[in-house]
Design goal:
Layout lengths: L4 H13 L2 E12 L15 E12 L3 E5 L6 H8 L7 E6 L2 E2 L4 H7 E4 L11 H11 L4 H14 L16 H14 L4 E5 L7 H18 L2 E6 L2 H7 L2 E6 L2 E6 L1 H12 L5 H9 L13
Parallel strand pairs: 3-8, 3-9, 6-7, 7-8
Antiparallel strand pairs: 1-2, 1-4, 4-5, 9-10
Length: 289
């Protein structure tokens, strides 16, 4: 499904759920346009990280943005989370413009990325208490929530109070996810959230995402290159390539279309290859870390 069908699909779901959590309209982001490139004909080299992207996400949906590293997925998440400003187009979160209403937008969102930062000498509990205070959460309530969330993600007992520097990369990522869940955001942005996690830990995180949606009516935007994860979690997925959406629909419908072309059952990886002509694994782009 491509072109204007993206918007019609999102609008139909919005009527079912009652409101739009996210509106992205003709958004583009460029890098390097004002800098002289040392090679070639001397013209400034401009990299288009996000190229005229439009879609909507209804409240309560888990929406996937799929593609390999370097396709602009992380740049798009940074634009939605107000960390970057769009060069063209506009983004609204629950009707609030991410540029004009930045402070109000930040109250609605939380973001988890693969480069999450912590005070490594402190424990998960101490790091999360610090985050809770920044969000104005009462201390006793915050401690109870922290223990509940960490235990649900498989971090229990002494590990809750051990220094972060003694934890594995995967365990640190779980703490980053717990930090985002702590505030029960209305829009949760997950940028490759299960990278570095073992299969059991991935399952813990995926189950917690589903529970957060059910218990708190949280809308989730998830970037991933893990097609199995996308299929298990997402109501709809956008196939992203070279900064553009080349298809957007429910995973089952995307696979149906490609299955007819192939004459056999298709996977989401088959869908990606059929739509982009590229394998899923691509070298990482310097402007989309």
């Amino acid at each position: 499904m491509a072109g204007g069908e993206h918007e019609r699909s999102g609008t139909a779901l919005a009527r079912t759920n009652g409101s739009l959590a996210l509106e992205v309209e003709g958004v583009s982001k460029f890098f390097g346009g004002r800098r002289w490139w040392p090679f070639g004909n001397g013209r400034p080299r401009r990299v288009v990280a996000v190229d005229r992207v439009s879609f909507t996400v209804p409240r309560g949906e888990i929406f996937g943005i799929l593609g390999p590293n370097g396709t602009g997925k992380s740049t798009l998440i940074r634009l939605i989370s107000t960390l970057l400003l769009p060069d063209e187009g506009r983004i609204r979160v629950f009707g609030l413009d991410v540029v004009r209403d930045e402070a109000k937008v930040k109250r609605h969102i939380n973001r988890v990325s693969v480069e999450a930062a912590f005070f490594k000498k402190l424990s998960p509990m101490e790091n999360l208490i610090y985050a809770a205070r920044l969000y104005g959460l009462e201390g006793g309530y915050a401690r109870r929530q922290i223990v509940r969330i960490l235990e649900s993600l498989g971090i229990e007992g002494r590990a809750i109070r051990a220094p972060m520097e003694d934890m594995s990369r995967g365990m640190q990522q779980k703490v980053a996810i717990a930090r985002a869940f702590l505030t029960s955001p209305t829009l949760l942005l997950l940028d490759e959230p299960t990278t570095g996690l073992d299969p059991h830990s991935k399952r813990d995180v995926q189950e917690f995402v589903l529970r957060l949606r059910e218990e708190h009516d949280t809308t989730v935007v998830l970037t991933t290159h893990d097609m199995v994860e996308a299929e298990e979690l997402c109501d709809r997925v956008a196939i992203f390539d070279a900064g553009r959406i080349v298809a957007l629909d429910a995973p089952a419908r995307l696979k149906e279309e490609v299955s007819r072309q192939l004459g056999r059952p298709a996977t989401l990886e088959d869908v990606f290859l059929a739509l982009t002509g590229k394998p899923l694994e691509q070298p990482e782009e310097v402007f989309d870390e």
